[in-house]
User: Fold this.
Amino acid sequence: MSHRPKTRLGIMSGCAWLAFSLAAITLAQEPAQNSAPAEPQNASAVVLDRVVAVVNNQAILVSDLDEEIRLSVLDPGQVGQGVLTRQRALEQLIERALIQQQIREEDERAAVPTQAEVNARLAEIRKEVPACIHENCATDAGWKAFLAAHGLTPGRVESYLRYRVQILRFIELRFRQGIQISPQEVESYYRETLLPQYAAGEAVPALDKVAPRIQEILLQRQVNVLFDDWLQKLRKQGEVEVLDPALESPVAQGKASQ
Assistant:
């Protein structure tokens, strides 16, 4: 599992709660008994989806992987990391399924984001994500073209962002409270980590000017440590099964062998 302070949750991709099945799942609905006979269709028109993993009886489908990869264009954490692999996409979906299940068990209402928070996040993405900047997403025409180019819809993007904000809020509520950063820790970071980044002769900011930012960095580090430990325990305690060996990530394989 990677340790990325702000971007380890992509968004849960709306997996339905499905009965466990190794067989392919037909997504096309059967015609109603009283309806007129349907015209013959070519066999290639039948859309099949396949279960690739099950997380505590919650299925993750091939279509979920495909959507996760499409949505990764909105994830600032993917910048400079290349195309999201299917193995990593599955790991993200497994982690998010575990988190979402835990949110429902604890207090889902406490983590529900407001529409204003979702709108604010959307505005940030349209202005700051490199892929959006290149395609002028700040304008309505540019945003519409961007979505079409990546096979996305406004509704799906909003759902994606709602999940992301919900998870981030849950992490803040569950792990951030109670953490104290001492002045000594702030000063140590300032002298040992920040100052060496400045070349000789460069203007160095005073400690009191950067102390709030340093405190936030150190606090986030501790939150990440607590969160990673909690997530590993969730996975060990739960029932997670990857049904396609080709999608088992090296990280997950290493954990399974421990």
